[in-house]
TrEMBL record:
Name the record gives this protein: Integrin beta
Domain Integrin beta subunit tail positions: 578-667
One Gene Ontology CC term in the entry: integrin complex
Similarity remark: Belongs to the integrin beta chain family.
Integrin beta subunit VWA domain boundaries: 1-402
Amino acid sequence: IHSNLQGETVSSRCDEVQGLIKRGCNMTFIENPLGQQDIVQNKSVTNRSKGLVALKPEEITQVQPQKVNLTLRSGEPQSFELKFKRAEDYPIDLYYLMDLSYSMKDDLENVKNLGTSLMEEMQKITSDFRIGFGSFVEKTVMPYISTTPAKLLNPCTGDQNCTSPFSYKNVLPLTSDGNMFNNLVGVQQISGNLDSPEGGFDAIMQVAVCGEQIGWRNVTRLLVFSTDAGFHFAGDGKLGGIVLPNDGKCHLENNVYTMSHYYDYPSIAHLVQKLSDNNIQTIFAVTGDFQPVYQVSSHQPLSVPFEEINLRFKLNETTNNHKLMLYVNLVNIILILKILRRNMFSFICTSFSTVFLQPQVHFNISITSKGCPNNGKPEIIKVRPLGFTEEVEITLNFICECDCHHQRIENSPDCHFGNGTYECGACRCKDGRVGRKCECSSNDVATEDMDRTCRKDNGTDICSNNGECVCGTCECKTRENPEERYSGQFCECDNFNCDRSGNKLCGGHGKCVCRKCVCDPMWNGTACDCSLDQSTCLAKNKQICNGRGRCECGTCKCDDPKFQGSTCEMCPTCPGVCAEHKDCVECRAFGTGEKKETCQKECSYFTLFKVKSREKLPQPNDGAYPIGHCKERDANDCWMYYTYSVTNNTENVVYVLEEPDCPTGPDIIPIVAGVVAGIVLIGLALLLIWKLLMIIHDRREFAKFEKEKMNAKWDTGENPIYKSAVTTVVNPKYEGK
């Protein structure tokens, strides 16, 4: 056993194997006893079919294994497989318990037929079948029945002839004589009582505990209980002055229950216990009105703690009580299903598991010890399927100490002159002695001198407030997490208060020793988060950070901010970057360009974002890293505007304008119209210029003419041959007035 670190308690040596190895314990000194199992008796289940040689019940095996020894260590489960196979032609005892109160009059004939059908069909299932028959009414005291002499002879009214009331009669003990059963069932007569609930629980109790009178064998035991009413239970007997609780014992005399007037009805829990103790499975055939009553009761359970099924079947349509409810467990169903299928009953399975209908069922049984009960003494438990006598006997042995305890040395000199027992590498002190070596008396442990030795200096707490001073030595506290420990002479150290990185103690690359990280090789830093491995900084050209930076903690720190990337290989703002990434940006953003076919393979190295306008493109001063703005022509001769950058996480990011800037084509009509208009305008302009020149020329000629005219010196006399064109005529009558 590895010795303790200074300040650790003796109990700290108990840990999981990996934890002890991690703390430096040699595997040869670690005690790790493990549980084990031993199959003592493992007789195979019986394989046989009906019609073969008959076997005695004790010769049939349906449960395997039969005996198991388990050695358990606390908290460590031990598991084994249990096989169950129901043997064909297995002996069955079936007892039919019938309600003969007056309310069953309408159903009596059908209930008689049910009993006969059960017997006939069960004989087809197994050759070793016995059937019995009993009936019940009510306690024979007021107010359950009328105690007048006439009513005791015939409790029915009018001309009806009924049998005298009784509590319970064992009409026919279990027998293989089917004719006798049919005859006795056929001659049964109705009796009567005053209240609605019946005394069926009294009858069930006597059937369960009167094994000799009923004739139960150590085989499958079935009890079919038929009624059309509810039941009395413990406490109802007070109405008749009966206050003694049911004693759960047999009180049959001449096959009649004689103490119904003396003992109260049994409680449901009492009845369940007796049915379970005597290994009897109960089948309830009740009317639909009382289905919820018996369904709740059966969950106590009056049937079994396995999953139940409900079988609904109808009697003849002429009966007033149309529905009976039959509650059976999974074991019963394989015996009853054929009977109901072949008779007048129709049924509906509302919840049914086929576990017991399989040829062979396997169960995995796991047992875990949560301590050392009874000081480690062996215990025996038994497991059996309800309704069967066979069981698995499991002997439990407990591991409560390590093997090294058997090699202990009492009064060892290693324990301060024999003041303790040296076992498993530590001292177990005698009463009145304390300390790691039992060197102190319990009366001296609280002295000031001893406390002084547990202080690092006068200004500190005893054991740094992380432990207790025992016999002048600090014993450090333990924490809920067994991986976390205090240590040191004054408990001043621990292994959980070191620096963390990535939410891991010492970055997961070191050990916390006395609140300081001791890093693994190739790691450095207060939290062991700085890697000394430079392989992550090695560029493709085999240079550290491409010769543009230095490697710090496994990451390149570039000397020039314009260089980026894991090895300073990128320069988003350097010339040529835009042309380098143009084809990939074009195929990723617009699905065009030279790399359109290989885009997914070659151009997935950056993250692309689209923006709607150039104003939304990242600007050089927006981020903490350089951003390169690019303008390139695409395959359609359009302008692409985008930015390329490398983030601080060495992630390539591209923002691109979602619509390229493409030049528009010429508009023919305006051009033609412009040309025509130009020609016309030019012609008009030429005409105007010609006209202007002609006007100027004419004016110049006229001015020249006038000038010459003014300068002319010819004779101004009249032409002798000139004759004026004007003729003047004087009116002779004109007087000049």
